[in-house]
Every structure is written in C-alpha cells, then in structure tokens.
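S1.2 Input.
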Amino acid sequence: MNSQAFAMLEFDQLRQLVQRHAQTEIGRAHSHALEPFEEIESLQGALRQVAEAMQLRSRAVRFSFEGVADPSQAIARLKIEGAALEPLTILDLVRLCNAALDARSAILAERGSCPALFKIVAALSADLQKLTKTITKKILPNGELDDRASPELARIRHDVGRLRSSITRSLENLMHRSSEAIQEELVTVRNDRFVIPVRADHRGRINGVAHGSSSSGATIFVEPLQTIEANNELQTLREAEQREIAEILFRLSEDLRAELPQIEAAAEAVAALDVINAKAAFAAAFDCVVPEVAESNSLELVEARHPLLEQNLRQTDGCIVPVSFALDDESTTMVISGANAGGKTVVLKTAGLLSLMALAGLPVPARAARVPFYRSILADIGDHQSLAANLSTFTSHVANIASMIETCETPALVLLDEVGTGTDPEEGSALGVAVVDHFKQRAAHVLATTHYSGLKMYAANQPGVLNASVEFDEKTLRPTYRLLVGLAGSSSGLEIAQRFGIPVEIISKANEQVKQSSREAIEYLRRIKRESEEAESLRCALEEERAAVAEKFAKLDRDFQKRERERQAQFDKQLSAVVGEFEKLSRELVAKIQERADRVKVEREAQKQAAELKREAQRATQAAKSKPVAPTPTNVPSQLRGVRVVRDGEVVNAGREVSGSPESAEASTNPIAARSIHADGAHERKIRVGDRVQLSSFGSIGIVDQIRGDEAEVRVGSLRMREKISNLELVEPTQEHETARGAKPGSSPTRGPQTGSPAGVGAVREGSLEKLRRQTQTTELHLHSKEPDSNFKTSDEINLIGKTTDEAVDLTDKFLDEAFLNGLNEVRIIHGHGTGALRKAITEFLSDHPHVERFASAPQDKGGAGATQVELKS
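S1.3 Output.
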C-alpha cells in the first residue's frame, strides 16, 4: 500500500502506542514494523490470532516474556560449527525456550478455542524442555557452572577447596609464629597467589617471594617459600578447572546446535506471540474490537474513537466523543460541514487511522467496525505550505491532490480536508466539487470537509452523496463534536469569532455585509437543525417508551417461563411416579413370564421323557404281538412282564403272573431283576460299556457309554447324565459278554426245568430279590395320541409359508415334538424361497434341536431349496 497518508494520519505514533505493550526487544521491533497486509488471507489470519488472544486475556490467560533477550546474535553464533557460547548467553537461550514452551502449554490448555495461536507453537517439541532442564542443572543463574556439571569438575573443585584450606592454615600458622613481623594477620591474594602482609622493616624475617607492596610502602605482600609449591599446584588446578568449564560449555553449545531449528522456531514464536499479546493489551487499554475486513465495499464505524486523541484527553481527564457513520456501494461519499473547531478533521483522521489499523491486523477502538480491503488510503489533511519549496497553501493542496489522483488504486479511501480552500471561494467551491466527483466516479469512498455552499448543495442533490455536519451549540457557542449524518451545517464563523473576543460592533458590521441569500441559507440550515433536534428528542422518547414496553414484555415472559418451569417440574414428578409404577409392574410381569418360561421348559422336558417311554412301550407291544401268547412265563416277553400298557383308554397288554416257584414269579413280574441275574448263577460281574443299567435314584433305564473311575456316563433316551457306579444296577449285559459265557448269539438263555427262569436263579441272594420286589411294582403306561395340528399338511411335513420367523420357529418346535412322539424317522419342513429369512431361521433352530439327527435341503422333486428334509433321532 502507498504510504502517502501514513504521516498525515499519524500511523507511526499509533505503532509506538502498541509498542509500549511489548515485553521483549524482538517484540518491540516487530511492533514498530507493523504495516497493512498485502494479502487478505494473511490479514484475516492475523485478526483471528488477535481475537483469540483477546479471548484468552478475558479468561485471565497471560503470556509472560519478561527477561527474554534478543536471541539473534546467539543463534548466529550457533550456526558457526565448533563455536562455544558463554554461560550467560546459554541461559538467555534457555529463558527463550522456556518462555516459548510455557506459552505453548497455556495455548494447548485452550487449544479448542484458539487454533490460530496453536499453529504458532505447534512446531515446538517437548525434547527442547529436556535440554533446558539439563542446562539449568549445570549453569547457575549468575552464569557460573555448578559443581555437579561434570564429575571431573566436581573433583577438581574439591581438590581446589582442600588445597586452599591447607594453604590458608599454613599461612595462618606462619603469621602466628612471626606475629611481630606481620602487619595484620590476614591472608590475602595477589596475582592469584596467597600471600601475607609483612612489615617493610621486618622483610628479612619472612623468606619468600614479594608480590607488591601497599600504597604507603609500609606493607610488603610476601608469598612464603613453604607455600610456593602449594600455590603452584593450586594454579594448576585452576587451569584444569577452566579447561573443564570450557569443555562443558562446548558440549552444551553442541547440544543447543543440534536443536537449532527448534530454537529458531521458539524465537519466532516468542516474537509473534509478544506482538499479538501487545495488540491484545492495547485492545484492553482502549476498549477495542476486532474489525471485520472483507472484499465487500462497505465501511462502517460504530462509536469509533481516535486512539491518540483519547490518550491525550486521558492525561487531562477529558472525554472523547465517538463518531458513527457508514459508506457502501449506494452511498460512497460524505461531505462534512459545520462550525470551525467542531471536529470535522477528527472524523477524517479517525476514519483513516482506524482503516489503516484494521488493514495492519490491529484491533480498533470502536463498538463495531467493518472495513473493506482497501488498496489505497489517500489523504490531504492539514496545511502543507513550504517556503523552501515555494509552495503556498493552495498550491500545496493542489499538488498533493494531483498525486492522489495519479496513485489512486481502487478500492480506495480518499480523505479531503477543506478541499478547494486557499483561493477564490467561487473557484475553490467549483474545484472542490470537481475533485470529489472525480473520486466518486472511480468508486472510491470519499470523506470531504468543507465550508463551501457549493459542496453542500452538491451533496444534497447528487445521488450516492451524504451530507453530514458536526454539531454546534448556539446557546453556549461551543461545538459538541457530535457527527450528524444527513444534515448540512453552517460554519457559524461570526459566532465563533465573537466567542473568541472579537468586538460586538465588528461582528454587527460583518453580519450587515453578509448577503441576503447567505443569511437565508444559514437560517434554513438552522431551522433544519432544530427540526432534526426535535425529531431526535422524539426518537429518544419513543426509544425510552419502547424500552419500557420491552421490559414489561420481558417481565411477562420471565413470569411465564417461571410458571412453565414449575409446571414442567410438576409434570416430571408425576411422570417419574408413573414410570416408577410402570417399571414395578413390568418387573412383576417379567418375573411371571420367567416363571412361565421355566414351567414351559419343564413341561417340554417331561413331554420328551414321555415320548421316550412311549417308544419303549411301542417296541414292547410290537414284540408281544409278534409272538403267540402262552400261559407259561417263557412265552411272555421279558420287557412286558409286570407292565400294563393302556393306549387311548384300552388295555393293549397286561403283565401276567406266571406259575411256578416264587422265584420264577418274582422274575416274571420284575424284568429288571430278571436281567440282573447272570447265566452261570454264581456271582454278579462288574458293569461295562454297552450294558443296560437302571439308575437307582430315578428308576430310569439307560446304556453305559463311558466309564471313568467310579463314575459312568449313561444315555437315557436323548439325555446323558453322569452317575456313580454304585448307584447303577445291571439290567442286560453286552452281547460280547453273553458270547464269552458260551451262549450263541441270538439264542434264548437256558431255563431251569422247574421254574422256567434262567438257570441259576436260585443262586441270587435273598436280599437282592427282596430289594427288587420293593423297587418293581406293576407299571402302567398310558399312551395318548394327539389330534393333528391344523398347520400340518400331512403327518410328516409342515408348511410355514406366510409365517413370521417367530411363528415358524414355534410351529416347527411343536411339529418336531409331535413327530418324535409319533415315532417318525423323517419329516419335511416347507418354508419356500422368498428372502431367505425364514429358511435361515429354521436352519439355525434345527442346528441344536434335541430331536434332530441331521437335516439338509430337500431333493428337487420334493421342493429343493424351498424345503428342508429332517432326519429325527431314533
């Protein structure tokens, strides 16, 4: 941007005002170099940073950079390979890094609300903090190295301290022995060597090397011979100490050199944050806002204040009067008239300086501000008269305006103070109108002050041009410095001249010289002003009334909100009670449903057990029908002896009492007992895998699948259970065992001639028979056939098409139980193709059903993938 207006708008003084709030030299240098941005993206980024810093400041978050020195020379020295830094310089870099890391921690804690500031410190690494901690442990704040900086340094300094103490004691003993030759018993140091003060007249009493004398010559400082070697050794240790210190400093410098990019980033971060912090502090001191800068052609300042004028008025306890106005695409020009010393020039300078501040990324003292991204800010303010340059007032103004016309680049802000002044009023007025209109035609924003009636009439008649004036109190003859937009003002030159002491008779003569037309114009402007003031008073009254009505409605709204909150609280309370009651009933209902589910599960298990018993009874019935019934026990199937089978209320088979001995009768009525007796009649054998056994605890009969130790795994129907072998009784041995005893496979066991029972029945112990009698009473099996379900297409298939998955699973479960009870070996489930959901649900259900042996898709002639063929367990 052209810097033509910087001096007129006092931008340098403004930068100094901001510079006062910087804490470091680099921050002050950057503040002094502030200027308008060339790219709008960079400007908006800077404004976001200032806004975030102001927000952090409002939450009492501060950045402290006190004591941070300018690191430029130290960084330049680090760039030289092999160069070592002084201890204080190293500490300056440590303070710089710590300040940057502290600022990073403060910003990181508020990262969500300040992303633009975090970008400045994001590159800083935690490794830098480790290095600074290491350095601060080795270098003391005064720049000396700590004894613990290295083991070698600690050893050397320990030896130095020990040797110093030894030399001091030796010299003290010598002075005590030769006290008459000693000026004062005080060990001193001359030329880095320990000496004692000896009287000049007793110099011969102390043998040693003289290291000078006092100013009077009465005292000679002598290094005794007995301490020369110790002093030499001490000097050697000091040299070793300096070498070790140099080595430590070199190593620390190398560590810093390895982190040079991080140190440079810390320096840049501190400089940037110090400037941003200075801007935020300036904003807090002058009650500033962050301006809105955009490509739009709209300039709006609300209650804007000139910061330099405000600073001066504060020193005299004065109060600044803010100004407000707006320019846009429709109204690009404003002509300001009114009394002399009324503040017209202040309006121009306020608009120009605040625009420059906004474009430089600074907050502006106003309640709200919107500034276009101007390419040019041009000003012709003040008297540029120069005798040396042979410029009069008029020529200086004309030369400056000519330069402004040549360099103007839109969008632009043009400030013209007393345009056309310094020449004939008629010509000056015409020139002023022409200049203002020229800049207006170039779409620039123009602010011009004038006393010429021609410009006032131009503003009143030309579209897009606003009239404005600074207020003048005719009663006190003093300006109020208020800007009135839309109203032209009179100069009130004669009134002001009277206030400043011009005699009344001169003022009267001047009034007589004023043209009648001018007096009429002045009176017209005054009348307009009075009407404007009356309208303003009416507006204020209406505003007060509106505020009162708004307050009344606000009170009504607050009352309504209060009642609404109370009603809502009551409703929430009632709702909580209803919900609590509902949850209580739900828990009770869920408990009942759970009990019912358990009951259904038990009933289903009972149905499965009944089905197993029914199948056993069917097999026994079929066996009985396949053989002729004889009156002797040998013709009665052993499985049905003592069993009475009743199907649908009719007796299918009744267990018969057989004639013969009591033993044979007992055996015939108790098949379990009969099968517990071995063919050889000698003794009972151990239970083996495959034996049919009875569980004494349940009375059920099963087959032994496994034996582990004293426990056996017994399969009873579709159930498997583990039971102690001592609780099992043998019912029927395996086929292999019968063959081992000489019986032919498939042959009937040998029976005795008298009892008709297997051979060796008499060998059974009496106690066992008595036990079997008690356990085996006549059993009656009631077999009921169920009516077929209406959903069954036939007895061996079910059609589920059109059912939901839950309905289909329930129907399938009932169908499989029915099929299993009726002794079916294979069934078909029809579910169709559809979306596949029904087939998937049936497949998952069949995969773990206790009645299902295996299942697969039906053959193509029986439905294919639309049906599932199921093989039931036998």
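S1.4 Remarks. DSSP finds 24 helices and 27 strands in the chain.
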